[in-house]
Write a structure and sequence with these properties.
By secondary structure, the chain is an alpha+beta fold. The chain contains one helix and two strands. The termini are far apart. The model has no long low-confidence stretch (mean pLDDT 81).
Length: 68
């Protein structure tokens, strides 16, 4: 049984999309010390990636010895 052009193109398209998604995920997580990465999924597909960075401030004291 021969593969049609559509059948042979599908794995290539999926692997390209997978590589692109992997790149997006690595960029979102890369360098993140504190925070979160949220993936918004609709109909079984990732449609949005949200990244929140948080900074920890240590060693600062207020007037009464508490935090900032």
């Amino acid at each position: 049984m021969e593969k049609s052009k559509a059948d042979s193109a599908a794995p290539n398209k999926n692997s390209k999309q997978s590589a692109e998604l992997q790149k997006i995920i690595l960029e979102a997580v890369g360098g993140l010390k504190y925070g979160q990465v949220v993936f918004v999924i609709k109909n079984g597909k990732i449609v949005q990636v949200e990244r929140t960075d948080k900074s920890r401030i240590t060693g600062l004291e207020g007037i009464y010895g508490d935090g900032i």
